[in-house]
């Protein structure tokens, strides 16, 4: 292989969900990956997905997930399946020697996730969830700022929201509100971003207290469609600071995504003057913003 030639990871997509349309395109746009195969529970649906998305005729089309996992040319699989199916198919993929990229939420509970991780680790494979924002250049820059002791201090307060105004059709047909398919509802779909933002801002330190607030709303199937929670870090950091966070996620509100972080550090040691720094990241529909405010 020439030095300039890049080895390509050959992806297979297990499940033809709507989000797979974007990921299929992203796989082919990346210089080091290529879409090798797709699979659905029916060959007709897989063929329709290939046609609708203009896939290369060389992409293999399978009418079952097992057939794709048995393809020796597939290096890694992307799984946009209902959460209730993740543990079965992710473990099977790992047993077949495939790296696993899985849609969020990765599992229904920590026990299922541990099972998936063990399958990947024991077979020497990589596991990754499909959270795009963590890999955005803006996120990398924000983390550099957040952990620059000369710029910011300890994070004292975090407010993170992710909401969307779901349609009647969504509440009738979408898997994210079906108890037998995605029983975590808004907690798993939208809360994944909010909880991830809190953990990211705390460098993945686990909180000491997590409390669901009284405004939890569920549908007739018992699936969460709107909720808020308080997340507390009561153990002080090396500088003595504690952190409080509030998250809110809902299928019942206008589409919006907000991240607000506040920190403070000693600005003038002699006078004990504090500088408060606030970092705002916002996105509403297709508009996004990012700003930092300081006050002494």
TrEMBL record:
This is Gfo/Idh/MocA-like oxidoreductase N-terminal domain-containing protein. One of its GO terms (molecular function) is nucleotide binding. SUPFAM superfamilies: Glyceraldehyde-3-phosphate dehydrogenase-like, C-terminal domain (SSF55347), NAD(P)-binding Rossmann-fold domains (SSF51735). Residues 9-128 form the Gfo/Idh/MocA-like oxidoreductase N-terminal domain. It comes from Gossypium darwinii. Pfam families: GFO_IDH_MocA.
């Amino acid at each position: 292989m020439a030095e300039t030639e890049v080895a390509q990871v050959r992806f297979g997509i297990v499940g033809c969900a709507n989000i797979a349309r974007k990921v299929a395109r992203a796989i082919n746009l990346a210089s080091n990956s290529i879409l090798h195969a797709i699979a659905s529970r029916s060959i007709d649906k897989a063929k329709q997905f290939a046609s609708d998305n203009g896939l290369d005729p060389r992409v293999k089309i399978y009418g079952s997930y097992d057939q794709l996992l048995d393809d020796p040319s597939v290096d890694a699989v992307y799984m946009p399946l209902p959460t209730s199916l993740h543990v079965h198919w992710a473990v099977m993929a790992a047993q077949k020697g495939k790296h696993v990229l899985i849609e969020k939420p990765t599992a229904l509970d920590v026990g299922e996730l541990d099972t998936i991780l063990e399958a990947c680790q024991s077979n020497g494979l990589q596991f990754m969830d499909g959270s795009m924002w963590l890999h955005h250049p803006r996120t990398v820059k924000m983390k550099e700022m957040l952990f620059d002791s000369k710029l910011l201090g300890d994070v004292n307060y975090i407010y993170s929201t992710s909401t969307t105004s779901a349609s009647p059709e969504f509440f009738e047909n979408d898997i994210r509100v079906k108890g037998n398919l995605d029983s975590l509802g808004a907690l798993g779909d939208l809360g994944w971003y909010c909880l991830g933002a809190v953990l990211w801002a705390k460098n993945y330190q686990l909180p000491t207290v997590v409390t669901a607030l009284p405004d939890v709303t569920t549908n007739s199937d018992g699936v969460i469609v709107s909720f808020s929670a308080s997340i507390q870090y009561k153990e002080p950091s090396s500088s003595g600071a504690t952190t409080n966070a509030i998250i809110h996620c809902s299928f019942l509100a206008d589409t919006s995504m907000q991240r607000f972080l506040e920190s403070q550090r000693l600005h003038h040691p002699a006078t004990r003057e504090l500088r408060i720094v606030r970092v705002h990241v916002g996105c509403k529909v297709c508009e996004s913003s990012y700003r930092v405010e300081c006050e002494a």
